[in-house]
Specification:
This protein has about 325 residues and is of the alpha/beta class.
């Protein structure tokens, strides 16, 4: 590797609940995972906000983040992200300012423009729909001000957010957020794990539109990827069937528990379903250490990310430990 020799490795978690899981099983697995990846040297661990999804238990994102911070020592923990339509800027600054006060130097704040749920649920929690980009930018600037210096505050202040300066990251799954992130001079996290088609263009727009700010001197790209590391390519492919089943279920409007792997899954698919899944393949670092190394060469050449944010949908903690260990070994050997 050349310019990417110091690519950071991080983790994204939705706190998935699999078939045969209880709620606490899913939360305990997420807690065990942060201890594992911290020992493996991962840089950060993010939790994504979702609502009204039986198989995703990260709805009260800040509470999960606080629990993870309490059960780890050094790794950064944050929201990947807060779906801003569901919150006021003041509430976000108060919440994440409090977390930063409790766990100084370890908290991140990723911000997204989508509601992270369906329209019926969104109708119950929407604060505002950011149809106008200017309003979304204004809301982000409000958060920055609330967590900024005493001199930046107005009539209303976010206690204890003042002077916490929690790092803000812009999330994106299309090209629309790329220029906003660039113009604000913020780091940009793109969801390549489920929206790979727009990744190259969005990252290009972000880098070209980037304006240095007091928060960041040069563009910084985090690329979301799927990760299915295993001791054999066949086993990695078997584990991946859980993700494929979940994608197919979601396309049907089924938001149930995450399925378990099924090695015969492909044999049960119709031609239309195979075409659908082929079109929905995210950026996937899958296979043994050697296989992942080859795939990583392609990914780093195409996107030149500064950081990888990897998500592994696996029901067993030993599978997750193997996957993240192999991923770390593959990338750190480059």
């Amino acid at each position: 590797m050349t310019e990417n020799k110091n690519v950071k490795l991080s983790v994204l978690n939705l706190v998935p609940k699999f078939q045969n899981d209880t709620d606490i099983d899913a939360i305990n697995r997420a807690t065990e995972l942060i201890k594992i990846v911290e020992k493996l040297g991962y840089h950060r661990y993010w939790v994504a906000e979702h609502h009204n999804f039986r198989g995703v238990l990260s709805s009260a994102t800040a509470l999960i983040i606080q629990h993870l911070l309490a059960n780890s020592e050094k790794i950064r923990v944050g929201a990947g992200g807060v779906m801003l339509p569901n919150h006021t800027s003041l509430q976000v600054a108060e919440t994440y300012g409090t977390l930063e006060t409790l766990y100084p130097g370890r908290v991140d704040l990723g911000i997204g423009r989508a509601p992270g749920t369906d329209s019926d649920t969104a109708a119950l929690i929407y604060r505002t729909q950011y149809v106008r980009t200017s309003k979304f930018v204004e809301a982000i600037k409000d958060i920055q001000r609330f967590m900024g210096s005493e001199e930046e505050q107005g009539i209303v202040s976010a206690y204890p957010g003042i002077n916490t300066n929690v790092p803000i990251f812009m999330l994106g799954s299309s090209i629309h957020s790329a220029s906003v992130s660039g113009e604000l001079g913020l780091p940009y996290s793109f969801a390549g794990h489920f929206s790979p088609d727009a990744a190259e263009e969005a990252i290009k727009i972000y880098r070209e539109s980037f304006v240095p700010s007091k928060y960041l001197e040069k563009p910084y790209v985090i690329l979301g990827v799927l990760a299915h590391g295993a001791d054999s390519d066949k086993e990695a492919e078997r584990l991946y069937t859980a993700t494929q089943q979940a994608m197919l279920n979601l396309s049907r409007g089924e938001k149930g528990l995450y399925p378990l792997p099924d090695e015969n899954f492909s044999d049960k698919l119709t031609s239309a379903e195979k075409i659908f899944l082929q079109s929905k393949i995210g950026i996937n670092l899958m296979g043994t250490k050697e296989t992942i190394k080859r795939k990583w060469d392609e990914v780093k050449s195409k996107y030149q990310p500064d950081e990888i944010m990897a998500v592994s949908y696996m029901s067993e903690i030993n599978q997750l430990e193997t996957s993240y260990r192999i991923l770390a070994e593959a990338l750190k050997s480059q």
